[in-house]
Write a structure and sequence with these properties.
about 15% strand; 14 strands; three-stranded antiparallel beta sheet; alpha/beta; about 375 residues
Amino acid sequence: MKPTEKPANPHFSSGPCSKRPGWSLDALKGAALGRSHRASAGKKKLQEVLSLSREILGIPDDYKLGIVPGSDTGAVEMALWSLLGARGVEVLAWRASARAGRRMRRKQLKIADPQGHRSGLRRPAGPRRGRLEARRRLHLERHHFRRTRADADWIPDDREGLAICDATSAVFAMDVPFARLDVVTWSWQKVLGGEAAHGMLALSPRAVARLESHKPAWPLPKVFQMTKDGKLIEGIFLGDTINTPSMLCVEDAIDGLKWAKSIGGPQGARRPRRHQPRRARRVGARTPVDRFPLRNGGCALDHLRLLQFTDVWFQSLPADSQAKTIKDFTSLLEKEQVAYDIGAYRDAPAGLRIWCGGHRRGDGP
């Protein structure tokens, strides 16, 4: 029978999250429009984003924090193109999207002997599924590029390399240990429900020192350049963005950050998120769906739920037929206004993905 109950909010895929409760276009009426972003009004808005982000996320005072082009992807590419090459690289990957990063380092930047450690999205057998055990074998003199949202106690304070973390899905949903990371990147989309195209970049003093002492062997596009004559361009981290930002997006980010602050920052956002995975588990208990949260030593990545159908008929289909079935299913969900953009990643097994964001109970699915 066709279900009669629908989610209160169908915007719960793992793309940009739903806007905060009560959001409307009125939230953007204070935007500094029709002015240069370098004028005092625009610059003040950009600096407000930086100060609110530092306060809410607990970013150390000696870390540089800037707004950069290209969303989180632009921020992490900017860091990799600028910092890699001085040492070997090891990649700790929990997501399929890290494959593109490995290709970039091996083929484009031609990093010698890059080492990769990953926990795949396909469900491994046994009770230790999805865990990454490679931490024991890491060479800590190398740079470490992490696409993970887990603990960082294993990163020593006296490391020689840099720890680079692509944390876009985690930064407002989990306690990111900034003090043990040298580069952290994210966007305004996850949890905040902010608009795309702008990224955030946090640099430790060690990362700044590396920027000023290391000149990459490859040319850097203008939007990636953070130094001039061997010195950090300080203005990037004071609200002087490299290119022209959208002040509407900036205003929306301010609104989202103020909302995050009002519910207690990441700690407040995590409280309702704890209930959402349990809802996903209840759905799985009633349907032929298998849950395989990625895990790292017992730390479940509860902010993202990946669901795969385990029905015998579905599993007997070839891969292209599974993908088409899921596409037809997600199209039906969208038509019925049940869920939007809920298909799994392209490199993941055919299935669904659910972003467990930071909205209060009753505001989500």
